[in-house]
Design brief:
single chain, nucleotide-binding, alpha/beta, 11 helices, Rossmann fold, Cyt_trans-like, Nicotinamide-nucleotide adenylyltransferase, globular, about 230 residues
């Protein structure tokens, strides 16, 4: 199988990396060969408040996964001229596979995404059915999310294809989120240890998420500390 996590990654956090690690661990325990794990940042055309430019989000994901030992970054979705639906992102790795190996491509997501799949106004139902039937989902459930009840609800696509949904429980409560990281940055607070240090440095080097206006750079990022990225606007 190939694992793909689609998201804003605005910015990427340790929670995103942990989610990929748990998904890979669970599938390997179940006897699958995991051929690759990818983070696919969403296209800039996806409307979301405070969404950093795709090139920044791709670079931050690359920095975040540099020492992951297996998680890679696919910039294809960002490079498209328009918003690309999740199904088409999942179809790409399989299309490039060399016969006779055609891996099954699974979407890795959190419980919030799975809950959105239960809302017919959030997903095109024909595309969602193809995603669930031809691919499948690995849902990493945070503390307190009731995923089991969601899958047991009759009359929904999630119920019909519940056998194609693997639920992985996060044994260590993790409430880190990109929105919380952005909020802390806007307040001028430290986000160290919420996301890799290389990502924090990149954010300040490029003035993302209100850091330019805040005007207060963490002491450990002051000149004299080793730079991890020399890219400039």
């Amino acid at each position: 199988v190939v694992l793909v996590s689609c998201g804003s990654f605005n910015p990427p956090t340790f929670m995103h990396l942990r989610m990929m690690e748990l998904a890979q661990q669970q599938l390997m325990k179940s006897g699958y060969d995991v051929l690759g794990s990818y983070m696919s940042p969403v296209n800039d055309a996806y409307w979301k408040q405070a969404l950093a430019a795709g090139r920044h989000r791709v670079r931050m994901c690359q920095l975040a996964t540099a020492d992951s030992g297996g998680i890679m970054v696919d910039s294809w979705e960002v490079e498209q001229r328009q918003y690309t639906r999740t199904l088409f992102v999942l179809q790409r790795p399989a299309a490039g596979a060399c016969p006779p190996v055609t891996p099954r491509v699974l979407l890795v997501c959190g419980a919030d995404v799975l809950h959105s799949m239960a809302d017919p106004t959030m997903w095109r139902q024909d595309l969602l059915e193809t995603l669930l039937s031809n691919h499948g989902v690995v849902c990493v459930s945070r503390n307190g999310s009731d995923v089991a009840r969601l899958l047991d609800r009759p009359g929904t696509l999630l119920h019909s294809y519940r056998r194609n949904v693997t639920v992985v429980e996060e044994p260590v409560p993790n409430e880190i989120s990109s929105s919380r990281v952005r909020h802390e940055l806007e307040q001028g607070h430290s986000v160290r240890y919420l996301t890799p240090a290389s990502v924090v440095r990149y954010i300040y080097d490029h003035g993302l998420y209100g850091t330019a206006a805040a005007g207060q750079r963490p002491r450990w990022l002051h000149p004299g500390s080793q730079k991890v990225d020399t890219e400039r606007d």
